Sequence to fold (478 residues):
Amino acid sequence: MAKFLLIFDVGQTLCYNCETYEEFTHNQSVVLYRAFIEKISNMSAAEVDSIGMSTLPLEKIVKDSENYEKAFAASMTDTIVKFKDLKNANYISKEVGLDSQFIKTLLAADPFHCGLAESQLSAEQLEALKAVAKGLLQNDKCIVAKYAAFDGLKELLAKYQADPRFRLAICTNTSYAKKQRAIVHQCGLDHFFDATIVSSEVGVRKPNPEILNLLKAQYPQFRDYQICIIGDMVDRDILCGRNANVRTLWFTQKQFDAAVNYKKLKEYEPDFTLSQYAQLPGIVELMLRDAEYLEGQKEEVQKNYKSPENYRKLPSQQLLRVGYYFPPSMEAAVIQECGYAIPNSRVIYYPYQLDCPFDVQPNFSVFIYHGIDIQSDQRFAAFLQAAKERKIALVSSLDGSEGLASLTEKFNEILANQSVIDLVAKQKLKVKVLSLAAAKENVEDVYRVCLLYTSPSPRDRQKSRMPSSACKKKKKKK
Fold:
């Protein structure tokens, strides 16, 4: 029986910050300020001097702490988020009659963004002050970020936790282990995982493969091809997985730094990509089939599959490759509610990133998209030209019967929603059409598949929405 170890990153993979960056910075500033005031109130004179604050009116600052708190939070938020200079600190301090040097000093000590602010402290004093500020983050009161688990993730983790074939683990980079563990707990996810590896606790960070080797040592029953790391950063999570010779899955729904990912994508291409967790079961099934395939081979063959290049030869990588793009406002409904772009035994899907250069994205044979929302986008125009040069079959929701007729010349069968099936019948097109619902039950019959999404009526096209009749019918059946 095939088994699998799924290893998850934390931020932007298991969960995401619900606040705007401005809200997070402001709230964090307030909490850090309060913890700092509490700290210096209990310091000796020598300790206060060591962090360069003996010349400041600390009695006044402590007494008028509420106004200083507001000034510090406002200054930090503007300085960090808007990247302004320290004139803002001077202005806010002057407006409320506070000591601006104190605000500047605290900004310089901010443990998240050291160096954005200047102060009159010596190098030794500044380092001592930063150490105090960083130490405050170990205080439970300073863990204020609001995080939430991605939609559908808890249900999936519960399913895999209950399945004896699977083990679940966490591998995360962070300088503040206590905070990271608190975030996982806040999202109600900690009880799903058998093991957690945090970089600051073990002294090694992704993409160094040693951090994954520590997890491998805890799970000796799993071979490399039975392990997959899931993360949002190509140059950390995916590269780490490649370095450790395990399977890799890139999660793109809320990337921490998309620009960096796009620069590294061609060099460190993941085995699989998903934009919604509704797609995960399909990908896991493909990896299980790959594992079963290898387990049926001789020991020598199994040993050869210890590199990303060899993983490209596995059955899951030989499927029909279909790229897709749906606007963010539509994507969840298309995938989660209607069941589109779910990998199966014949098709593997790749979400397309409009801002990502065409030549670094995975190769695919067919591309599907919702044309209403992107037909005027210059980024997509460039993609269309490149796709035609590569002879990719393009399918748009705007193609209508003419597009369908053209498509039927390229494919023996079409996997489609009900509105497309009705259109094929009305136009009397000579092509075998299989419904999505039927395909899920009998997907082995589909040997040449293309997924086509169309809006059911001109009225829906005008609205640029996706309230597909197929969605509604599925919901009624449930």
